[in-house]
Amino acid sequence: MKITRRDFVKTGALVSGGLMANQLSPSNIFGRQPVDGKLIAVATWGGTIKSTEKAFEYLKAGKNSLDALEAGIRVAEDDPTNTSVGYGGLPDEDGIVTLDASIMDWNGNAGSVGCIEGIKNPISVAKLVMHRTKHVMLVGGGAKKFALENGFKEENLLTESSRKTWEEWRKKNPHGVYRVDEKNHDTIGLLAIDNSNNLSGGVSTSGMAWKLHGRVGDSPIIGAGMFVDNEFGGAVATGNGEFVMRTVGSFLVVEKMRDGLSPQEACEYAIKRIYKTAKNNRDIQIGYVAINKKGEYGAFSLYDGFTYALTTEKESKVMKSEFLVK
Ligand code: ASP
User: Fold this and answer.
1) In principle, which of 46, 144, 281, 300 could form an S-S bond with 318, CB 3.0–4.6 Å?
2) Which fold is adopted by the domain 5-323?
3) What is the atom index within ligand 1 of the atom nearest the CA of 217?
4) Domain coordinates of the chain in residue numbers?
């Protein structure tokens, strides 16, 4: 069965999280209260619950939040049915899969890769950029060269199913005109707190399907797609990256937490900021997920349909985000 991104979000998430659809009721959705125990893994999109569960396994085993989130994100990157991350990600207008990822630890160290081709786990390349170089960001051919020199192997990331989807799109759009399409993108953004109370964040995506070759989204831009400040909290973004970049969204969310807002209030603030300039644009969707050092979490999106995944000692569940435009 071909699993589309939306199906993946709806069914994959609920099945793997062991939840029935009616458990997505308002009474169990908007988490603002501190979770029991300090270990927590939370991620954009309900379909990533296997990733938060993998990250949590690592946290439970005493691993740090950086290794935990990397392991979690790799689950999504390796999954060919997830058509917006890693292997199986939908390609750009030329039929080439290009990936973006970034990672940040509790000391403020950061690494990222943009527009990397042929490497299935960009989150791990981003981690290596952070650990082995003096730089923060590598892109394109340079990022791939760095990955190959550091033991990553080159793979064809375009699955048969993604190739067919691209071919169908191409037939209908012979001139390859890029259009924003709410259905053809998503990002896994994962935040984790470990048993030393250290917070890390990471994101990974194939970006907008049918994008112009060379387009880089918000995900590898530190402060836009993801930001972590170990004193206050962290945030990750998903959705049309151009709008997130223009408002430096994740940094904004974290700065609002620094000012005293809860994660929920901070996400709402950042979405409202985007809405100011994107009022009439119904084609886009943006969602933020944030946590603070107390383990409080929140999520908010522009429109209906955004979900997120949470795994703690007590539970592993998919939640529906509140949204701005009713
Ligand atoms: N933010 C990603 C990008 O613009 C896509 C998404 O999360 O939907 O590349």
Assistant:
1) 46
2) Glutamine Phosphoribosylpyrophosphate, subunit 1, domain 1 (3.60.20)
3) 9
4) 5-323
